[in-house]
């Protein structure tokens, strides 16, 4: 199968002054990581707090080295290209990111505008943006959330919109960093179904998690 991501002897450490206590105690570093992730894979990153799960996701979505500073050696290849040589804009066409706190990635105050934001910023024509929003809402069962205030949504609903926003760009890869951390049991069940919908579309999914039970099967 096609390799979507390849890490070659990657090491990374943050400046010590920027680390939270948990990561400072753990070293806050990745050392000599080599791996490949194939097209259509569902990959779980798990481990204790501060072990580097979030850092791995930042390597995959280009936030390292383009946003987060630190000491970085080795290479991460995205579809055969070194992420150092790609802009964050280019990476965002291939990788959709969903963060632990979805509020940190919203740019609009209503859900429909939020779903449209990514395609609009990538220069897609207005009529095609509307079609994408409609299609993503249908595929991920987001229709009841359309035209709602972001501030009126529950934690689970916000996470669904965050996933929908990523899906509206139609990336090949989804990188999710502890997406269940603010969700209750009912929201986690819904979110699980959303993940498996994306998997059924042949997408590559990389998820950093400490709750593992909902990902089985």
Automatic annotation (TrEMBL):
Membrane topology label: Peripheral membrane protein
Protein name per Swiss-Prot or TrEMBL: ABC superfamily ATP binding cassette transporter, ABC protein
Localization, UniProt: Cell membrane
Keywords on record: ATP-binding, Cell membrane, Membrane, Nucleotide-binding, Repeat, Translocase, Transport
Job of this protein: Probably part of an ABC transporter complex. Responsible for energy coupling to the transport system.
InterPro entries: AAA+_ATPase, ABC_transporter-like_ATP-bd, ABC_transpr_CbiO/EcfA_su, ECF_ABC_transporter_ATP-bd, P-loop_NTPase
Domain ABC transporter: 5-215
Family the UniProt entry places it in: Belongs to the ABC transporter superfamily.
GO MF term list: ATP binding; ATP hydrolysis activity; ATPase-coupled transmembrane transporter activity
Primary location recorded for the protein, binned into one broad class: membrane
The organism of origin for this protein: human gut metagenome
Gene Ontology CC entries for this record: ATP-binding cassette (ABC) transporter complex
